[in-house]
Amino acid sequence: MEKVAEILVEASAAAVEPRFRALATGEVMEKAPGELVTVADREAEQLITRRLRELLPVPVVGEEAVSADPDLARALGSEPAVWLVDPIDGTGNFVAGRPEFAVMAALVRDGRTVAAWIWQPVSGTAYAAELGSGAWRDGQRLHREASADLPEKWHGLLKSRFLDPATHHQLQARARAFGRLEEGLRSAGMEYPLLADGGLDFILYWRTLPWDHAPGSLLVSEAGGVSARLDGTPYRPEPPGCEDGLLVAADPAMWERARDILLGQAG
Length: 267
Known about the structure:
The protein is α+β, with helices and mostly antiparallel strands. It has two domains: 2-141, 2-Layer Sandwich (Fructose-1,6-Bisphosphatase, Chain A, domain 1), CATH 3.30.540.10; 151-262, D-Maltodextrin-Binding Protein, domain 2 (3-Layer(aba) Sandwich), CATH 3.40.190.80. The chain has helices at residues 2-16, 39-55, 63-68, 75-78, 91-96, 165-174, 188-196, 210-222, 252-262, and strands at residues 28-32, 35-38, 60-62, 81-89, 102-109, 112-120, 125-130, 134-137, 140-141, 155-158, 180-182, 202-205, 226-228, 246-249. It has a seven-stranded mixed sheet with strand order 3-4-5-6-7-8-9, sandwiched between helices. Helix 1 packs antiparallel against helix 2 (39-55) and helix 7 runs parallel beside helix 8 (210-222). It starts with a helix and ends in a 5-residue tail after the last helix. 46% of the residues are buried.
């Protein structure tokens, strides 16, 4: 666990942090409409990939590698063990000079995330989780306390960017039952830890790219929360395009109540 954390910190120091608020002309590209990538993303992923393979020689499914060759993501369903890497989660924030970005990795065995790491360079905060063993922030054990019983006291995020207009309208109307609802920080590597730390009560994501959600889902689950599809199936990382919709909450009772409200099934 400690070695992977060191790899992320060192790659961030070498490739990411020197370019924060210092990106040169030509160092930011658009890899798809509305999707940015920088030389820092690519260099950090190359560094992390090489070091992870030295640690455990299994396929590495990195965000930027999959952008170049989508077939690489199939390893999540065909290989017994796979590394997942997101070299900069929140690239748009990074490009804009905002501090909400993270460097993340996860280890997947037989389709389940068994270990996860999140490094937040600006604050210098490290999160880690191991299946069945717990979650930690800077080496301190995390345990998410249950939230208030009343939905009108809950603070949640509704990640609506990839929702169709009709679904978005329905969810916004139902979400009036909650006390405070926001769009989020544009970085799963910031949002999941915020929930694990007690700063949020629930998050509804729609698009669920594996490198975005495997690390944080394990962190929240090991801290006592829940990360599951809307039918109640526990989250498992899948190749892009397999399934949409993921609700993350502070505890099982909140997950059930929030899901019922968002789906219009609350009594």
